[in-house]
Amino acid sequence: MQIDKKKEGSSTIQSLDKAIDVLCSFSVNEPELGISEIAARLSMYKSTVHRILKTLEERGFVVQSLQNQKYRLGFKLFDLGYAVVSGLEVREVALPLMREVSANTRETVTLNIVDDYERVCIEKVESTEAVRNFVQIGGRNPLWLAGSGKLLLAHLSGKEIERIVRAKDLGSTVQGTPITPEKLLEELTLIRERGYAVSHSERNIGSASVSAPIRNHEGICIAGLSISGPESRFTEERLPMLIEQVTVTAKNISIRLGWKGI
């Protein structure tokens, strides 16, 4: 096994850097990991990983399962993450209006931001309907798939858009339709022109959404507001109402954040 060594003169604290690497090994798709798995992934000695995990466990950052002896992230990280989310002004401003939209439409309403070229949900108001979209706060998805992600992608800088569209493996929709750079760029242009995004069965079969940009005082898109639900309720007759709800509400949130609407 090749052990990674930090360059001489680095300003980082090596032990802390390794602990952060261990924490970052966990994800939504891999919530539980064993010592051997982490050691192999990070090219660390198992004894080093074990010491790090025990230290993190004592502080509540990880928890060991009694069933399989694997580790998962602890609630201390949830507390810290919630502190970050709570500090976002856009979340505080948007939440009351999101509740109104959810009550008016009976659908799930989410607030999303861009992080490392992914769409991340930072707040949600769930539908009260028996059949509804399930959205996880903190959940990540590609920017180029589904309306909430493409809405945010469309409002990045031209350089960032080109970097993502040309460098990433765009894959296909859940129905198997290939996503090509040319087709995606055309759709992003249309989203900017219309001021909203609509998607049907792109990431999940039977799911639909409408999304609109939230802007700051400089007019820069800093988040996206989305209404999502079963495709069966996003009919041609109902769609105009849903689009109006998401665009008007996103505009009102933007105005409360200082946007002049110009």
Question: Which SSEs are present, and which pair or pack?
Answer:
Elements (H helix, E strand, L loop, with lengths): L13 H10 L8 E2 L1 H8 L3 H13 L3 E3 L6 E3 L1 H12 L2 H17 L2 E8 L2 E8 L14 E3 L4 H8 L3 H10 L13 H14 L2 E4 L6 E9 L5 E10 L8 H18 L6
Antiparallel strand pairs: 1-3, 2-3, 4-5, 4-9, 5-6, 7-8, 8-9
Helix pairs in contact: 1-3, 2-3, 5-9, 6-8
Describe this structure in words.
The protein is of the alpha+beta class and 262 residues long. It has two domains: 14-74, Orthogonal Bundle (Arc Repressor Mutant, subunit A), CATH 1.10.10.10; 87-256, GAF domain (Beta-Lactamase). Helix content is 42%, strand content 19%. It contains nine helices and nine strands. The strands form two sheets. It has a six-stranded antiparallel beta sheet, sandwiched between helices. Strands 1-3-2 form a three-stranded antiparallel beta sheet. Strand 8 and strand 9 form a beta hairpin. Helix 1 (14-23) packs across helix 3 (46-58) and helix 5 packs antiparallel against helix 9. It is globular. It starts with 13 loop residues before the first helix and ends in a 6-residue tail after the last helix. Mean pLDDT is 87; it is low at 1-9.
